Amino acid sequence: MSDPTARKSAGLLELAERAARGDTAATGALLKALAPQMIRTVHALLGPTHADADDVVQQAMIALVQALPQFRGECSPQHYASRIVARMVVSNKRRSNFRNDRRDDETDVDAVQSGATSQHDAFAAERRRELVRELMTHLPEEQAETFAMRVGLGFSLPEVAAATGVPLNTVRSRVRLAKEALRKRIDADPAMLEMLGGDA
Amino acid sequence: MSALDLHPEELLDKAAAGSLSDSERVWLDQHLAQCSVCRFEQAARADFAAAAAPVADVQVDDLVARALAGMPTAAPAFTGRRSGSLRFVAAAAVAMFAVGSFAAVFTGALPRFIEKLVTPVAVPAPAPTPVSSRPVQQVAPKPVEVEEVTPAEPIPDPVEPAPAPARAVVGPKRVGPHRAALDAAGLFQAGNAARIRGDRAEAALRYGELLRQFSSSDEARLTHAMFGRMLLDSGDVRGALAQLDAYLELGDPTLREEAMSARARALALLGRTGEEAAAWRALLEQYPDSVHAERAAARLRELR
Fold first, then answer.
1. A139 touches B at CB < 8 Å
2. Nearest to B255 by CA among B295, B278, B224, B234
3. Rounded to an integer, what distance in angstroms lies between the CA atom of residue A42 and that of residue A120?
4. Which residues on B lie below 8 Å from A35 (Cβ)?
5. Quick check: A51 and B57 in contact, CB under 8 A?
6. Contacts of residue A132 in chain B, CB cutoff 8 Å?
């Protein structure tokens, strides 16, 4: 096996199997290997300065370890972890929404300053990210999770299907429904529509 | 369903991967010119990718330690494996100690997340959770709301049998019918669970029972360190020092680095600066890359 990515995935698979059997050293090593990606995923989907970010990462790590006995290697451990993180974030966003806690729906100034080359581009990018995060609180759970993985994490359709364990056509359907909701949201936001270059 | 609802998702994937053919690019561009939703999706995917920032190693270590510390010890995958369970508890103990060290610098209390997240361990171990195809919903532990631990609460003598705590206990009574039947592992888990939820009196009773009844067990060895650290946090510095000394004399390596650091802090609180300096020097000598190294060096500079 010469592909470094494939070698890394195989190594992680072995760690995941050992961790699922209760090997504590493997559990620690697996979490350490997956943690950077899990942290980045939480920051992307929840917002980098969200007060609950660390808690969600830790909950996702615990959930991952406990879910390992059900992991059958249908996808990479990285994607499996990302799916769990996405589900945790969706859950957290819904709870925040239920509490009418809107602190995470404001554009993050730090993210704007550090994310892109010009202030205008940076603002537009952060508005789009915030709209994705906002949609996650309103979409049905499966659609929100799929949409988060696809747009927030850049998963392809087959990758989403493998990570969520549903048929490809189900993923297509979820994406289409999520985009219908997105269209309504964009149509109701003239500034966003203008940012996207017109009303088509 | 209109034509605009037939979004070319595969072409968006190919565009993201940079593998579009010329004809596919033309087709996708035509669609994007008409579809604001796909324009949004393409732009947003790039936005999220561009925002990914590197993660510091220290943040990784801290969050992994906290997650390990918050791991329920009676998880389905770990039940029925006595030695494995103890190893897991030991790993969690290391993590708790390490996290506690960081947290103590800032708050002097146990990490909020651990107190909030950890599910108190039922004794004996609960039945395995039913298998579900939805891992997160199955496993997400219900947060346990625990009030902040207040320092200097009286701790019963760990060696002498102590009366039931006089203070009011909030929540369900925790001294159950299984108490007399607990083995070393059960007492260790019960003590840790009580300590984590902030019930230090109950933790002290459990740890005390363990040290009296199973003094040569693996659990008792670790208990000296865990108990010592708890006593230090609660302000019983002399009691803490006795437990930490007992642990270090046993030569167990599991929590040695953390116990040495806690012992040095206990000596500082007692004003025994000469012994404190020696303790920090010993820590630096044995663990030059310790997470406590910076603190040790700073303290040694102050003590000169």
1. no
2. B224
3. 25
4. 55, 60, 63-64
5. no
6. 44, 48
Q: Which residues of A touch B40 (CB under 8 A)?
A: 128, 131, 182, 186, 192, 196
Residues 6+ apart with CB under 8 A from B296: B261, B264, B280, B281, B283, B284, B290
Q: Which of residues 10-29 of B touch A (CB under 8 A)?
A: 10, 13, 16-17
Contact list in A for residue B55 (CB cut-off 8 A) is 35-36, 39-40
As given in the structure block, the two tokens for residue A63 are 């959930």
- pLDDT, tens digit, for every residue of B73-94? 533 333 333 344 455 555 555 5
Which residue shows structure tokens 């969050």?
Answer: B63
- N- to C-terminal Cα distance for chain B? 79
Phi, psi of B260 (to 5 degrees): -65, -40
Residues of A in contact with B37 (CB under 8 A): 179, 182-183, 186
* Domains of chain B, residue spans: 3-51, 57-251
- B219: DSSP letter: H
Average pLDDT, chain B: 69
pLDDT more than 90, % of chain A: 30
Cβ–Cβ gap A62/B71 under 8 Å = yes
Give the pair of three-digit tokens for residue B64: 């992994």
**Helices marked H in A47-140 — which ranges?**
53-67, 77-98, 109-115, 119-138
What digits encode the pLDDT tens for the residues B173-215?
Answer: 333 334 456 788 888 878 877 776 677 888 888 889 889 888 8
Please check whether residue B30 touches A, CB under 8 A. no
Contacts of B163 (CB under 8 A, 6+ apart): B156
Nearest residue on chain B to A30, alpha-carbon basis? B64
**CA gap B227, B220 in Å, rounded:** 10
- Listed residue (B261, B265, B267) closest to B283, CA to CA: B261
Which among B17, B39, B117 is the nearest to A58, CB-wise? Answer: B117
Angle at B196 between CA B182 and CA A22, to 5 degrees: 65
Confidence of residue A198 (pLDDT cuts 50, 70, 90): low
Distances (CA, A) of B300 to B223, B293, B295, B303: 29, 10, 9, 5
Asked if the Cβ–Cβ distance from A27 to B68 is below 8 Å, we say yes
Contact B287, B293 (CB under 8 A): yes
Contact: B141, A62; criterion CB under 8 Å: yes
